[in-house]
């Protein structure tokens, strides 16, 4: 049950491995009178205990904590915004339907504070991909990965490259020939302005981590 002192506030738990990031977020959130940071955790165990103790309205969790923490608190889930140092969430290893949104702490506070306000005061206890409220929530747009102008098959290959797969592995995975994969690789390089296989590999790996491509195609 929420402590009486903070009955009108949205209670927040921050779970990140960086002390500097936690301090910065705490300072920024202190500018909102109706947001109260109840606990800061720098490990998964500490984050789980903080959520169990404070029953927060919102958990701000680093990418390194978000998924395992969700699993640990599954019986008493909380709304969760994922934090990352890059500009988008990247290519997730799992479905993002149970997450409320993504915040880049490299961005401006005026961009991400409204997202925190919205989720912290949402009447729905957790995010759900099939929820009408969640589908219409503008915060969920923050989970979308920016378009690259690639076809769906090219995008599959691009993200596969980013995960470290070679042409033969991608061909086997997608059920096409190695020659087809190589043709798509060349098309991707041309569309993204990349002049070598090495630059393609680096750009794809960066994209999967959440980096953006610069005007020359690099990340």
List the SSEs and their pairings.
Blueprint: E1 10-15, H1 19-29, E2 35-41, H2 44-54, E3 58-62, H3 63-72, E4 80-84, E5 101-104, H4 109-120, H5 132-136, H6 152-162, H7 167-174, H8 178-192, H9 197-209
Parallel strand pairs: 1-2, 1-3, 3-4, 4-5
Briefly characterize the structure.
The protein is of the alpha/beta class.
CATH topology of the largest domain: Rossmann fold
First-to-last CA distance: 45 Å
Q: What sort of overall outline do the alpha carbons produce when their principal axes are compared? A: elongated
In the residues, how many domains can be counted? 2
Total strands: 5
Report strand %.
5-15%
Mean pLDDT, all residues: 90
Name the CATH architecture of the largest domain.
3-Layer(aba) Sandwich
- DSSP helix fraction: 40-55%
Q: Could you state the order of secondary-structure elements as H and E?
A: EHEHEHEEHHHHHH
Biggest sheet features: 5 strands, parallel
Report the C-alpha radius of gyration, rounded: 20 Å
Strand sequence of the main sheet, in spatial order?
A: 2-1-3-4-5
Structural class of the helices, strands and pairings? Answer: alpha/beta
Number of helices: 9
Extract low-pLDDT stretches: none
CATH superfamily of the largest domain: Response regulator
Which CATH C-level class of the largest domain is it? Answer: Alpha Beta
Pfam families: GerE
Protein name: LuxR C-terminal-related transcriptional regulator
InterPro entries: CheY-like_superfamily (IPR011006), Sig_transdc_resp-reg_C-effctor (IPR016032), Tscrpt_reg_LuxR_C (IPR000792), WH-like_DNA-bd_sf (IPR036388)
Keywords: DNA-binding, Transcription, Transcription regulation
